[in-house]
């Protein structure tokens, strides 16, 4: 692998690692609004084949959304790192 390509991949790795460190608290799940007449906000998580709900009310919705969004960002970064690291491993064989 050429020196320039190696340096570029290492820079990408460092950028992704910085993005990981910048993430704050996170939660797997999503904010849902449930109810027939007066809809209320809940945080929903499916764990061990059971759906678990936490009542949020109006005051904690944004915080829960932020945590959920951080989790989605984490997954995206991990996917990018996986592809990059697969390429690095593949190139190291040559």
Radius of gyration: 19 Å
Quote the beta fraction.
15-25%
**Shape label:** elongated
Q: Count the helices. How many?
A: 2
Domains, number: 1
Class from helix and strand fractions: alpha+beta
Task: Please explain how this structure is put together.
With 94 residues, this protein is α+β, with helices and mostly antiparallel strands. It is 56% helix and 20% strand. The chain has a 3-stranded antiparallel sheet with strand order 1-2-3.
Summarize the structure.
By secondary structure, this protein is of the alpha+beta class.
Set out the fold topology.
Layout: H1 3-22, E1 30-34, E2 40-47, E3 50-55, H2 61-93
List keywords for this structure.
alpha+beta, 3-stranded antiparallel β-sheet, 20% strand
């Amino acid at each position: 692998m050429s020196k320039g390509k190696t340096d570029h991949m290492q820079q990408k790795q460092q950028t992704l690692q910085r993005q990981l460190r910048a993430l704050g608290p996170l939660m797997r799940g999503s904010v849902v609004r449930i109810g027939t007449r007066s809809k209320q906000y809940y945080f929903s998580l499916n764990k061990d084949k059971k759906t678990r709900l936490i009542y949020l009310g109006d005051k904690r919705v944004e915080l829960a959304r932020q945590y959920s969004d951080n989790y989605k960002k984490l997954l995206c970064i991990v996917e990018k790192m996986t592809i990059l690291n697969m390429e690095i491993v593949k190139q190291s064989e040559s």
